[in-house]
TrEMBL record:
NCBIfam families, alphabetized: PRK07565.1
CDD domains: DHOD_like
Organism: Ruficoccus amylovorans
GO-annotated cellular components: cytoplasm
Lineage: Bacteria, Pseudomonadati, Verrucomicrobiota, Opitutia, Puniceicoccales
Official protein name in the record: Dihydroorotate dehydrogenase-like protein
Length: 332
């Protein structure tokens, strides 16, 4: 079965990629990922907080400092746990490039424009094949407009584009008033792919001890539905490559994502839960299913369930919405 796909200008033998996670934090795991047939690997992000820690020589736990990066808080390792300051991160890129042949996508999560552009350059020099910009910002002031927040994001993409030649993916949250418009804006500034979507590790509240409790739960397949909808809306309407991240656990999930329009499937939770051979299993099961259904290639299946291929998507969407609402009643 021809599962070939193109993502970020990289010719991949199939769409299954190891998503940003601690899997890239150890060379033995990276080798296992290659052995399992991963088409590429995204590194865990270098967070600006790590750069600051490094520069200030601090070793404090991430949860103890003011953060605007809610997603980062729960999986951002303390400097002493992972010992990945910016220099070590760049060294890790070089080591991974030497250790394996699969493409390596570095990941950056900054706060200041200067950091984004400076470290993007370093990552390019260290040999990364592409760069994933992990955009996340949580506005808290009523004075800050959505236009300003989005404008900052667009400027980050523009300036990073100007400073590196690397293919650029932008990992996004689902929280946009008009995602298609934002996607167009980053496409105009030179982004090459959108990664749909960042997943948030939302702190809970301990009501007895009056504490915020960080929680890191792995995903399940239900989280895929939001991604499917947006992939289906964007597919064919943007020149950006589309990667899915979040909720792909089975071959069926992966097939749905491709049908909705994904060029690349990033796996994390399922690999952390079942180990790296899970990637091989999903790839084989997808190929087998496609053979049974007489597909010739992944390309043939890609986007086949996108909104562009539905005759009247708005009508379908409205009609379904109404039907679902009307199907509920209160137990007597
Ligand atoms: C332990 C752990 C560490 C992660 N580290 C990062 C990271 O450094 N950068 C990033 O962009 N995403 C990170 N993520 C998010 C994943 O890349 C992915 O987007 C998310 O887990 C959803 O995919 P999944 O359902 O396959 O897990 C991490 C996730 C987990 C579970």
């Amino acid at each position: 079965m021809d599962l070939k796909t193109t993502y970020l200008g990289l010719e991949l033998p199939h769409p299954f990629v190891v998503g940003a996670s601690p899997i890239a934090a150890r060379l033995d795991r990276v080798r296992l990922a290659e052995d399992a047939g991963a088409a590429a690997i995204v590194m865990n992000s270098l967070f600006e907080e790590q750069i600051i820690h490094h520069e200030e020589g601090l070793q404090k736990h991430v949860l103890s400092h003011e953060d605007s990066f809610a997603e980062a808080t729960s999986y951002f390792p303390s400097a002493d746990e992972f010992d990945l300051g910016p220099d070590e991160y760049l060294e890790r890129i070089r080591e991974i490039k030497q250790a394996v042949d699969i493409p390596v996508i570095a990941s950056l999560n900054g706060t200041n424009l200067g950091t984004w552009t400076e470290y993007a350059k370093y990552m390019e020099e260290a040999g990364a094949d592409a760069l994933e910009l992990n955009l996340y910002y949580q506005p808290r002031s009523a004075e800050e407009s959505s236009e300003q927040v989005e404008g900052n994001f667009v400027e980050i993409v523009e300036k990073v584009r100007q400073s590196v030649k690397l293919p650029l993916a932008v990992k996004l949250s689902p929280f946009f008033s008009s995602l298609p418009n934002f996607i167009k804006r980053i496409e105009d500034k030179g982004a090459n792919a959108a990664v749909i979507f960042n997943r948030f590790y939302q702190p809970d509240i301990d009501i007895e001890n009056l504490e915020a409790v960080p929680s890191l739960k792995l995903s399940d397949s239900s989280e895929l539905l939001l991604r499917l909808r947006w992939l289906a809306i964007l597919s064919g309407r943007t020149q950006l490559d589309l990667a899915v991240t979040g909720g792909v656990h089975t071959a069926e999930d992966a097939i749905k994502a491709v049908m909705a329009g994904a060029d690349c499937i990033q796996l994390v939770s399922t690999l952390l839960r079942h180990g790296l051979p899970q990637l091989t299993k999903l790839r084989n099961e997808m190929a087998q299913w496609m053979e049974e259904k007489e597909y010739d290639s992944l390309e043939q299946m890609k986007g086949s369930m996108s909104y562009q291929h539905a005759p009247n998507p708005e009508a379908i969407e409205r009609a379904n919405y109404l039907r679902i609402l009307q199907s509920w009643d209160v137990e007597a």
